[in-house]
Every structure is written in structure tokens, then in C-alpha cells.
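[[Sequence with C-alpha cells]]
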Amino acid sequence: MATLAQKLPYTHPFAGGYPYRGSQRLPSDPDALTYLAAVAAADGAPVETAVAVAVDDFFKGTKADGTFSALKAACLLCGARTLAGALVPLVGTAPTNVADGFVSGDYTRGGATPGLQGDGTSYLDSGRNNNADPQNSQHVSVYASIQATSTPTTNPVYISANDVASDGATHIGRLSNNGGLYIRSRQTGINFCTTGSGSETGLLGLSRNIASTYVVRRSGATVTPSVNGSRTSTTPFDGNVFVFGSAANYISNARLAFYSIGEALDLEALDARVTALVTAIGAAV
């Protein structure tokens, strides 16, 4: 008969500190393990095994899809035990919590609407320059568990580099006059695109792989958005990409569980992996 000690979980020497049973699955992707170790160091304790496995699935899945190499800066803004852990990057540079605007009370690690809650004044500097990727190979995305509203900020932004009228800028945000999404991918001047109602949650993203146009992901569909002017790219604006605002302007009150920046990729594949990750974490904690 098994003893009590044999029935209880124990720490396997290769389990990274996770409770282990002989039949239990553990994370194994090397990049996932590196990320999880960094989160544990920031949090002071490992995340639950179910969260770790969801992260492992994301790394393995994006590699299998061929999208992982296009992620140059990405952050999972849920799952970790603390805000410090949530700001550990999946890949690339850690974001800066500008002026320490976000506090622990703004962070929800799981549940139905996980993520970091914007307040109309706080934002993140991704540390990734808008011109770090080729002019005609770009993507940015966020996962919104709660959409931005037009108050307290006019034309609130999910992710952005520079102001709306600047050449080569990047934006995903909401228009205050009709609530629709407005999007820019390195277009000239005031040219921008619109699509949808803007009230969508889930993955919102854009991807450009040619000079003449780009596509947008929203509401589980990939679309070519309506254009005001031209979708043709110009020289990318030289400045960092910000999350929750365009630097100190157009700051939103969305709740975001993920963001990514990098080269062109399959937005449908990314959507599936990010949605699975956030959903699994929401159910686990």
C-alpha cells in the first residue's frame, strides 16, 4: 500500500520547482522554462503548474506555426502572481511601467477578464523601436479582455508609436466620434484605416508584409480595413512603441492581457495561440 508521502506531490529535480506526479505533464520548451524561471524570480514563487503548461503550449505552438521568430517584443500581462512578474517579457525587452503609473491593484492575473487595467493616465514603454523591423514587415497586436472606451480619453489607443498625423506611425485604437477601430501601419501623414465597431475584445492586430497594404485581425476575422487615403508604407517613425497610449497621449482604459511587436506574421495563427493561452490562464487562477 502506498504511504501518504508517496501519494503527495513532490518536487522533481528537473521540474523547475513545480509540484510533480509521475504522470503529470510539466513544461519542457527551453524558452518557456527560461521565461517561467524569470517570472518566478520576480514573483518570489513559481506559478501554478496549469499556468506553466499553458505558457509551454504557447511557446511550442507558435514555434510549430512559424510565428515565434516574428515576435520581437511580447509580454503576457496575466498569469504571473504579481505585477512585477507580469512585466517579465515572453521575448525581447522588458517594458517600462512609465512613472510607475500601474500599481498592483490594476493587475488581475486570471478569471474572466485577466490583464492589466488602464486608467487613462498610465502606459507602458515597450522598449521596441517602431523602426526596428523592416519597413514592409511589421506586426503589432494586443489581447483586450475589456475594450477601451472613449472616456476619459479622446481616441484611446491600445498600442501605438507616435501621434496620429505623423509619417510612418503605428496605431491600433478607437475613434471617439463613432467608436470604430482606427489603424495605421507606417502610412503617410493623416492617412489611416478603420474597421469594426471598436467594441471587440480578444486579439486586435495588424500585419504588413508588402508595401501597398496590410491586414487587420479583430473579432476572430482577418480583414483589409477601409482606408482614408493610402495604405502604402513610408519610412517608419523613429521612436518606441507604447502600450495603452501614444506615449503620454490618447491613453486608454482598456484591460490588456498580452501584446506583441515584430515582423509580419499569420494573425489568425497568433490569435488562436494567444486566445488559448489567456483562456487557459483565466480558468486556472
Observations:
- Residues 1-15 have pLDDT under 50 and may be disordered.
- The domain at 4-284 is CATH 2.60.120.200 (Jelly Rolls).
- Helices lie at 4-7, 30-43, 49-65, 83-86, 267-284.
- The first strand starts at residue 10 and ends at 11.
